[in-house]
UniProtKB/TrEMBL annotation:
<dbReference type="InterPro" id="IPR000847">
    <property type="entry name" value="LysR_HTH_N"/>
</dbReference>
<dbReference type="Pfam" id="PF00126">
    <property type="entry name" value="HTH_1"/>
</dbReference>
<keyword id="KW-0238">DNA-binding</keyword>
<comment type="similarity">
    <text>Belongs to the LysR transcriptional regulatory family.</text>
</comment>
<dbReference type="GO" id="GO:0003677">
    <property type="term" value="F:DNA binding"/>
</dbReference>
<dbReference type="GO" id="GO:0003700">
    <property type="term" value="F:DNA-binding transcription factor activity"/>
</dbReference>
<dbReference type="InterPro" id="IPR050176">
    <property type="entry name" value="LTTR"/>
</dbReference>
<protein>
    <submittedName>
        <fullName>DNA-binding transcriptional LysR family regulator</fullName>
    </submittedName>
</protein>
<keyword id="KW-0805">Transcription regulation</keyword>
<dbReference type="InterPro" id="IPR036390">
    <property type="entry name" value="WH_DNA-bd_sf"/>
</dbReference>
<feature type="domain" description="HTH lysR-type">
    <location>
        <begin position="2"/>
        <end position="59"/>
    </location>
</feature>
<dbReference type="InterPro" id="IPR005119">
    <property type="entry name" value="LysR_subst-bd"/>
</dbReference>
<dbReference type="Pfam" id="PF03466">
    <property type="entry name" value="LysR_substrate"/>
</dbReference>
<dbReference type="InterPro" id="IPR036388">
    <property type="entry name" value="WH-like_DNA-bd_sf"/>
</dbReference>
<keyword id="KW-0804">Transcription</keyword>
Length: 287
């Protein structure tokens, strides 16, 4: 029913929102672009674009086809790569930070298996600082985690502001020392929490410490204190966590950046293929 050339032209127009610009990007004439879109609309029996002399916009049917067309074109290319024996092969030792397990990480890893049957993933989940050490010592091929302060390596995937989280019944006065639930001091979130409190000279003490996010969540759920973590924790199954009430007068927390990086800036082979997939799908993990 669908011609791949027409679908590629359709996707180019959907991205550029301009017939001439799409033709330039594809190396074809504007008249050919118009012909491809007209034939595709005839095949669908639906109008795909609303267009006038100034703008080009997808219709509701066009938006649906855009999602499907990306899959169709992508699968076609993967099949061509596979049978041309150029599909990535091998096993990638991937490290991800503990908090990424709160996202749709499992969906991404399933996509890896579907897109590249010959590409295997050996997964390690842990503290960001430990993952960086393993990467630098050659025990990991790729890391998807928070960026360490002062480290400019990696491709930015997502930026997120941390939140002060506590059990919904937890209370804290403005003059009270803050009971913290945190990773060991080597972690990025712990460092940011202490910097924020020390910056306003707010006293604090460690009420609970754990090497795992599950341990931090358990301590916070038990009402032992507050933690500086991703707001995604509030959406976890069975969570009673909320953002700490403003009456506690806790200072604002900084943002953290999630990046993907390998042992070299130029990634090739299986690690490069997995990094490309993370760069493509990664931003959607927090949806």
């Amino acid at each position: 029913m669908f011609d791949l050339h027409q679908l590629r032209t359709f996707l180019a127009v959907a991205e550029a929102r301009h017939f001439t610009a799409a033709g330039t990007a594809l190396g074809i004439s504007q008249s050919t672009v118009s012909q491809h879109i007209r034939r595709l609309e005839q095949a669908c029996g639906r109008q795909l674009f609303e267009r006038d002399t100034h703008t080009v916009a997808l219709t509701a049917d066009g938006a649906v086809l855009a999602e499907l067309a990306r899959d169709i074109v992508g699968l076609s290319q993967r099949a061509a790569d596979y049978f041309a024996d150029s599909a990535p092969r091998g096993r990638v030792r991937l490290g991800v930070s503990d908090d990424l397990t709160l996202t749709r990480l499992a969906d991404l890893l399933r996509d890896v298996g579907r897109a590249n049957p010959n590409l295997g993933v050996e997964l390690t989940v842990g503290l960001t600082s430990a993952l960086y050490q393993k990467l630098d010592s050659g025990r990991l091929d790729l890391v998807f985690a928070k960026r360490q302060p002062g480290d400019d390596r990696g491709v930015l995937i997502h930026r997120e502001r941390l939140a002060w989280l506590a059990h919904r019944e937890f209370t804290l006065g403005t003059d009270e020392a803050v009971p913290l639930v945190l990773y060991p001091n080597s972690s990025i979130t712990s460092t940011l929490a202490l910097e924020a409190l020390n910056g306003v000279q707010r006293p604090w003490f460690v009420a609970c410490s754990s090497e795992t996010l599950a341990g931090l969540r358990a301590g916070t759920q038990a009402g032992l204190g507050v933690m500086a973590q991703s707001p995604l924790l509030m959406r976890a199954a069975g969570s009673d966590l909320v953002v700490v009430d403003g009456r506690a007068a806790l200072p604002p927390l900084a943002e953290v950046e999630f990046v993907v990086l390998g042992r070299s800036r130029r990634l090739q082979g299986a690690p490069g293929a997995l990094a490309d997939l993370i760069m493509e799908k990664g931003p959607g993990l927090w949806a």
